[in-house]
Design brief:
Nucleotidyltransferase, domain 5, 340 residues, 22% strand, alpha/beta, GbiG_N_sf, hydrolase, CbiG_mid, Cobalt-precorrin 5A hydrolase
């Protein structure tokens, strides 16, 4: 987690050091020029220390989207004014936490659930011996919010509005079920459907999309991006899988300069990882349908299957071992979903 802390007082700087020493070893510390002069910090060559030579709101124009977590050792009211206009949406905003000047309280201020501010608030408080202050209704009531649930399994919410409505039911004491029917599928598997038994006319439903699909991709030289995107969409559709569930793609080292493949991944916003021959050979036993042609060309019996496996957590199973679609070959590995 990329983390920055800001302080404008001598006591605040001591708190910054305490946070770095006990919680975030790679913490970036931003200190006002006045404090830097007072403590002669610029001559000490402190690692990852930045002296603020401008107003903090102006500085935040450059840093707000650069970090995942911002910690302000300052009054909460002052921080509210400082970050005004910087935040956009709870699914994209970084987490913001305030700590008082004497490190008595750590307050989760912005992006408590999806941004992780609530969890980091507890972590910081534990590390510096302070009291965590968390005010989100679900946490205060000892209940879990839908967006917290999605974060814990590293998934994506299909709709923030749906999540708010269902979380509201949870907060207000309504019964909300998570559907993993034991008589239909195993508890650790994804559901394609659910049976809901209820006498309620209107039932709020929120869908969470886990990012647990790994695509292994092989393609002929000079395959255009349009063709690759078409085949990926086709395979995901036929497997009844959400495109947003794709965590990453993987291929062989010889495809690292394949323009069409790289452009397709960029357009689909899917990160791709390339594996060297030695790594593929280590798991070549996974390749059930071996290609002598591929072996003669690059020295391995297959690309999509072993690369999908190598890029995964290794915990899960193949939904598609290998499907040939003209110039493109695709394998799909589904990782197990787990709670942290």
């Amino acid at each position: 987690m990329r983390t920055a802390v800001y302080c404008v007082s001598k006591n605040g700087y001591e708190t910054c050091l305490k946070i770095r020493n006990n919680v975030y070893k790679n913490l970036h510390i931003y200190v006002s020029q006045r404090v830097a002069n007072m403590l002669n910090l610029e001559s000490e060559n402190v690692e990852n220390l930045f002296v603020i030579n401008e107003r903090v709101p102006i500085l935040l124009e450059k840093t707000f989207d650069k970090y995942d977590l911002h910690i302000f050792v300052a009054a909460t009211g002052a921080v509210v004014r400082i970050i005004e206009g910087k935040f956009k949406s709870k699914d994209t905003d970084p987490a913001v936490i305030t700590v008082d000047d004497h490190a008595n309280f750590v307050i989760s201020l912005l992006s408590g659930h999806l941004g992780g501010a609530n969890e980091e608030c507890r972590k910081i408080a534990d590390g510096i011996g302070a009291i965590p202050v968390i005010t989100t209704a679900s946490d205060v009531g000892g209940k879990i919010a839908v967006d917290t649930l999605s974060q814990k399994i590293k998934a994506k919410l299909e709709s923030l509005d749906d999540a708010k409505r269902v979380t509201s039911l949870i907060v207000n004491g309504e019964n909300v079920s998570i559907h993993l029917p034991k008589n239909i599928v195993e508890n650790d598997k994804n559901c394609a459907g659910a049976i809901i038994v209820s006498n309620r006319k209107n039932i709020e439903i929120s869908k969470i999309i886990p990012k647990n699909i790994i695509l292994g991709i092989g393609c002929k030289r000079n395959t255009p991006k349009e063709k690759i995107i078409e085949k990926i969409n086709y395979v995901m559709e036929t497997q009844n899988l959400e495109m947003d569930s794709i965590k990453k793609a993987a291929s062989a080292w010889v495809k690292s300069d394949e323009i069409g493949l790289l452009e397709a991944m960029t357009e689909l916003n899917i990160p791709i990882e390339f594996f060297e021959k030695e790594k593929i050979l280590e798991v070549e036993n996974l390749v059930e349908e071996r290609s002598e042609f591929v072996k003669n060309q690059i020295g391995v019996y297959g690309v999509s299957e072993p690369c999908a496996y190598l890029a995964s957590s290794k915990k899960g199973s193949f939904l598609v071992k290998k499907v040939k679609l003209g110039e493109v070959t695709i394998s799909i590995f589904e990782e197990e979903i787990y709670f942290e």
